[in-house]
Every structure is written in structure tokens, then in C-alpha cells.
Amino acid sequence: MEEPRLPPAIGLGTAPLAGFRTPVSEEDAAAAVEAALEVGYRYFDTAPLYGYGLAERRLGRALQGCDADVKVSTKVGRLIDVAAPRPPGDLFAGDRGAAIFDFSADGVRRSLEASFERMDRTYVDVAFIHDPDDHARQALAEAYPALEQLRAEGAVGAIGVGMNRPALPTRFVTETDIDVVLIAGRYTLLDREAEEELFGAAVARGVHLVVGGVYNSGVLTGVAGRRTFDYEPASQEILERTRRLRSVCEEFDVPLPVAAAQFVARHEAVGTVLIGAGSAREAVENWEHLHRPLPGGLWPALEAGAGR
């Protein structure tokens, strides 16, 4: 079997391109991908959930005619009904579409076929099983074997699981021959839960780790008013820890989001850092955050002063 085409060190997450929390125009979405390609991104992650197909359509259009060696991942486990009413509490801009969990073998194939149509592709480098928290048995027994077959057929280069909590991904690592794990928000300056078991298991099995959510959904961006932690209002304890982190960073003249991004990238177990962007400016800024030289004394100072 051909070796999986694993993601490079830096990737662009496309949830913001579908209007995550804030509407994004077609022009701005296209400009974000164009700027990302120009500055050096060669990996783009998307999902049917992101705008109920909108992110996939926008990414597909933006990559048309691209002659760079670009890797793309999408996700399975949700089928999109674009005619359904908007779910209560939906975080994506717009007023149409709903996602229905389906981790059956048939659902996986239908999901991937729909993604291919939206992106105008016949292949993705990675297909992630997306958020199977409450569907572990079916995801392991049906979704994963379906992706193994699709990998054998040449429609998928690598199989992954993408989640916000590390316990079930650790099971995938130890119980299957999965290639990649995407874990979001569980290895950051504020939360290191994924390091406890998942990282060690992945290294032992040679599983590629993609880490997203480096800003914990907002609080680590350093932007005034972005006081969310894991998509909810940050607690006073989190805000106080963030304040201490920012104070240490200021002593070294380092912006907080730069430290947040590079904290993730410097871990030896992490293969790819994935950061979302909804504009050309954000895409370029995140790239620059990951390439800015930092003083060596920053990391022990953060460990000593931040508290956990």
C-alpha cells in the first residue's frame, strides 16, 4: 500500500471561511486562500459541517487551477441537509442547512461523495472521522472500516479522527491502524490534556498529530473582546491565567498569539499546527506568528509565571 500523504507542518483551517461566528464574503474567502497559498501554506482542512458545505465549496473554487502540491483534508460523520432550518444556537452565519450525524459505512461514502462534488475533487489526502463522541461504537465498527476500503480504492490517502477530547482518539490510535489524529483545543498554553495519553500513544504507534484550536477559540488571540474559551465565555480563572500569560509575554516583547501558536509547534510529537483564518490578513498573520524568532528564555518564564 502506498504511504499516506501526511499534512505538512502548517495548515489553514477553513471553518472561518464559512462564516464561523462572523459572516465572510465570497471575495474575502477567496482572498484568504490566495494569500495563504502565496505566503506558503500547502495544507487546507475543511468539513461538511463548516457552513453546511459552504467552506468546502469555497475552498474548492479557490484551489481551482492551483498548480502547487497542496494537500486537502475533509471529514465524515455528518450528512448535510441544505433545505433544513438552521439549528438553534448555530455558530455559522447564514440561515439554512443542518447536519445529521451518520457514522455508518453508507453514511461515510455518501458524505465523502457529497464533499467531492462540493470541492470538485475525486480524492482527499486525509478523511477525518468527525466528532464521534457519542457514536464511538459505530465509528470504530463501521466508519473506520469504510474509510479503509476507500483508502484501498484510492479515494482517500490517509484515515484520521478529528475531535475536541483526547480519550476516544487515543482508542483509535491503539485499536486501529489510523494514520492521523486531529485534536483541537486540548494542547494549548491553557490546556494540556492531550499530552497526558494521546501524544505518547501517537508517538508509539507512528500516528501523525495535527493540533488545532491553538487560541482556545479566542481567549489566546490577544484581541480585545475575544474572551471565549472552548466556544464558551471564559471563566474568571481562565481570564486570570491568560492575563498572567500575557504579562510574561510582554516582558519579552512577544505578542500572546505568537507564543500560543509556537507553544504548540515546538512539541516534538506535533506534526502539524492547524490555524483557522477568515481573511487574507489573518492567514498571513498566523503564518508569521509561527515563523517569528523568539527568545529562548520565554518558555521557562511562561512555565514559571503562568500557573496551571
Topology:
Elements lengths: L9 E4 L12 H14 L3 E3 L8 H10 L7 E6 L1 E8 L10 E6 L3 H15 L4 E7 L5 H18 L2 E8 L3 H9 L4 E5 L8 H4 L1 H8 L2 E5 L15 E2 L2 E2 L2 H16 L4 H10 L6 E5 L3 H12 L6 H9 L2
Parallel strand pairs: 1-2, 1-12, 2-3, 3-6, 6-7, 7-8, 8-9, 9-12
Antiparallel strand pairs: 4-5, 10-11
Helix pairs in contact: 1-2, 1-10, 3-4, 5-7, 8-11, 9-10
3D structure, described in words:
The protein is of the alpha/beta class and 308 residues long. Helix content is 41%, strand content 20%. It has helices at residues 26-39, 54-63, 105-119, 136-153, 167-175, 193-196, 198-205, 236-251, 256-265, 280-291, 298-306, and strands at residues 10-13, 43-45, 71-76, 78-85, 96-101, 124-130, 156-163, 180-184, 208-212, 228-229, 232-233, 272-276. An 8-stranded parallel beta barrel has the order 1-2-3-6-7-8-9-12, surrounded by 6 helices. A two-stranded antiparallel ribbon has the order 4-5. Helix 1 packs parallel to helix 10, helix 3 (105-119) packs across helix 4 and helix 8 runs antiparallel to helix 11 (298-306). It starts with 9 loop residues before the first strand and ends with a helix. The mean pLDDT is 95.
